[in-house]
Amino acid sequence: xxxxxxxxxxxxxxxxxxxxxxxxxxxxxxxxxxxxxxxxxxxxxxxxxxxxxxxxxxxxxxxxxxxxxxxxxxxxxxxxxxxxxxxxxxxxxxxxxxxxxxxxxxxxxxxxxxxxxxxxxxxxxxxxxxxxxxxxxxxxxxxxxxxxxxxxxxxxxxxxxxxxxxxxxxxxxxxxxxxxxxxxxxxxxxxxxxxxxxxxxxxxxxxxxxxxxxxxxxxxxxxxxxxxxxxxxxxxxxxxxxxxxxxxxxxxxxxxxxxxxxxxxxxxxxxxxxxxxxxxxxxxxxxxxxxxxxxxxxxxxxxxxxxxxxxxxxxxxxxxxxxxxxxxxxxxxxxxxxxxxx
Length: 342
Description:
Elements: H1 2-18, H2 23-30, H3 39-52, H4 59-67, H5 107-142, H6 147-161, H7 164-175, H8 198-235, H9 239-246, H10 251-259, H11 265-280, H12 283-288, H13 294-303, H14 307-335
Helix pairs in contact: 1-14, 5-6, 5-8, 5-11, 6-8, 7-8, 8-11, 9-10, 11-14, 13-14
């Protein structure tokens, strides 16, 4: 996991360097520097910004500064020509740097704050996807070839083909003030939420999260249900399933007691990719519903060429992915007694 994570950070850092646009120019434009008549002050501000964030240094030095544990900036470790004011820092010490546009904001703290929005959304969506997909896949196998199986297949393929951005906009149009006016369509809370009681505030937040959760859930639900059905169909053709049927067991008992556990392997594999995708790929949903999560944070960072934010979000997503892969590997041994890791 460690060399894989380091490789991901190297690749992401190099790709960000190739993206068109100068962070210093974007920062100065945001600060109103383009409107300043004194070009000398503009150039001085650009040079100071690049020097402060090592943008005027070779890419290898910038990456080592980001990685740590030594601070390679002008105020960094004396071993590398700094003043010694900030000797240590970087990813290895849990320091993700500061934002370009808001130097007083630590990316680590902002990322943790936004994870409180994105992570619960992702876990709720993942739980609902599995909770709905497993029963649908099982019932489809038990009634395979019938009207229910055919209808379920058509439904999930239609859901899987619907783009998330289009579904989000349609749900906003239908349930928002333009039509039914049943649910709020933007934000995480009502503008007057501070005046609500505790129960009323909780209900308000829940109403704001219903539509984003639906958009995050329907694609994974459709995908998982097809895999559940396919995995069960493969297992019920095995000899031990024929033996169970020959003993006179009902089809329900054969599937739920003998076939289900051995068909969960592919779903565990998907868990290692779906959860990180929900956490790191929630850009569209958070942007459309105006949620202050990790996805919208990354979108703004890419727009502003804020390398450190992009690196922080990518590193976080990579860690989640690697941990999920590890959990999946260990869960295989629990599901299948034939698997042992020596």
